[in-house]
Amino acid sequence: MSWTDIFCHPVWAFSTALLYFVVRLQRRGRWNPSECTVKLTGKTAIVTGANTGIGKFIALDFARRGARVILACRSEARGTAALREIREKSGNSEVYLHLVDLSSMDSIRTFANRILEEEKALHILVNNAGVSGLPKQISKDGLDMTFATNHLGPFLLTNLLLDLLKSSAPSRIVTLSSVNHVKGEVDFSHFHGENLTYRLDKVYNNTKLHNVICTNELARRLKGTDVTANSVHPGVVLTEVMRHYPFLIQFIFNLIGFFFFKSPEEGAVSSIYCAVAEETDGITGKYFDSDCSIVLPSPLARDSALAVKDFEISERVTSKL
Ligand SMILES: NC(=O)c1ccc[n+]([C@@H]2O[C@H](COP(=O)([O-])OP(=O)(O)OC[C@H]3O[C@@H](n4cnc5c(N)ncnc54)[C@H](OP(=O)(O)O)[C@@H]3O)[C@@H](O)[C@H]2O)c1
């Protein structure tokens, strides 16, 4: 029997089609942003990494709801293209681009100072920007580049904007983690690129675990302030997230993803749910799955003593930079 016989066989074709439709149905999730009538007029939102992928669709949704939206991006060219597209599609001219490189603590401080000087309020902060598959690279602050971008940078940014979020309450912080956090490990020497295995998504998984741990601890510290902090898994989403992986892995990801993964628009849903839905009003310190349900994160992410330690060490490391 040849390969053509196998792949053209009706049983093969039928089961592939069935699998495709089951996956499509499951991708839809339980909450539909277009049926949510919440308006964000008079509200200000920041979305990091809003020039592509999931972040662009989160920002577009906020703009369509009438928010003043700040796209926090590192590339002027890519950010400007997204700014034009979001303004055009939403009809909202209150969308702005501010440059920030989340792997640089200096750049984050400059960005945060500008926000504190120019903005009267901040109601939504979405820590979306992220990177995966980078080889060993140490930032000019002496930090592992993936840790700086995915955990320590967003951690510093959130803390610098915290007073503004508090004075604008009710306000919400949403941090994009990943289901891969369950494979993550905590070792604080990782922050400086020590004892890390740079293979596929190993470093990424560790950073995504810190996202959930520190978001939970932040939520605990914010009790009574009417500022909520939650982390989300967006699903497996066909974006540029694999851009630093070997070509073959990118090719396989894109090929399978074309049929079975979420689109960036679908991947934005769980974050939008956390950031705007009435159903998530007042909910804090939770981890949301890609279908918008609250699920338990990994045991390490639920260890409150570890969370206190992680938060304090992350604070100590970033405050010096
Ligand atoms: N896609 C998935 O399957 C998946 C699954 C689980 C979790 N997530 C999480 O979802 C979030 C969004 O990912 P995505 O899939 O939309 O990825 P993406 O398409 O690669 O977009 C990532 C965004 O982050 C920005 N970014 C990266 N490094 C930055 C830096 N140093 N400073 C500022 N911005 C930076 C990128 O900017 P440039 O375009 O300039 O590089 C881009 O805008 C990430 O946190 C990711 O971990 C994704």
Written overview of the protein:
This protein is α/β, with parallel strands linked by helices and 321 residues long. The protein has one domain: Rossmann fold, CATH 3.40.50. Helices cover 46% and strands 11% of the residues. The chain is built from twelve helices and eight strands. The protein has helices at residues 3-8, 10-27, 53-64, 76-90, 105-118, 145-160, 162-167, 202-221, 247-260, 264-267, 269-276, 304-319; strands at 44-48, 68-73, 95-99, 124-127, 171-176, 227-232, 287-288, 294-295. It has an eight-stranded mixed sheet with strand order 3-2-1-4-5-6-7-8, with helices on both faces. β1 (44-48), α3 and β2 form a beta-alpha-beta unit. α6 (145-160) runs parallel beside α8. The chain is globular. The model has no long low-confidence stretch (mean pLDDT 94). The structure holds NADP nicotinamide-adenine-dinucleotide phosphate (NAP). NADP nicotinamide-adenine-dinucleotide phosphate binds next to α3. This is Zgc:64106.
- Label the structural class: alpha/beta
CATH domain class name: Alpha Beta
What fraction of the residues are assigned to beta strands by DSSP? 5-15%
Let me know the CATH homologous superfamily: NAD(P)-binding Rossmann-like Domain
Which stretches are low in confidence, meaning pLDDT under 50 for 5 or more residues running?
none
Could you say what the CATH topology is called?
Rossmann fold
- What does the average pLDDT come to? 94
The gross shape turns out to be globular
Helix percent reads 40-55%
Topology order in helix (H) and strand (E) letters: HHEHEHEHEHHEHEHHHEEH
Largest sheet: 8 strands, mixed
List ligands, each type once: NADP nicotinamide-adenine-dinucleotide phosphate
Distance between the termini: 64 Å
Q: Report the CATH architecture.
A: 3-Layer(aba) Sandwich
Sheet with most strands: strand arrangement:
3-2-1-4-5-6-7-8
Number of domains: 1
Keywords: Oxidoreductase
Family: Belongs to the short-chain dehydrogenases/reductases (SDR) family.
GO molecular function: oxidoreductase activity
InterPro entries: NAD(P)-bd_dom_sf (IPR036291), SDR_fam (IPR002347)
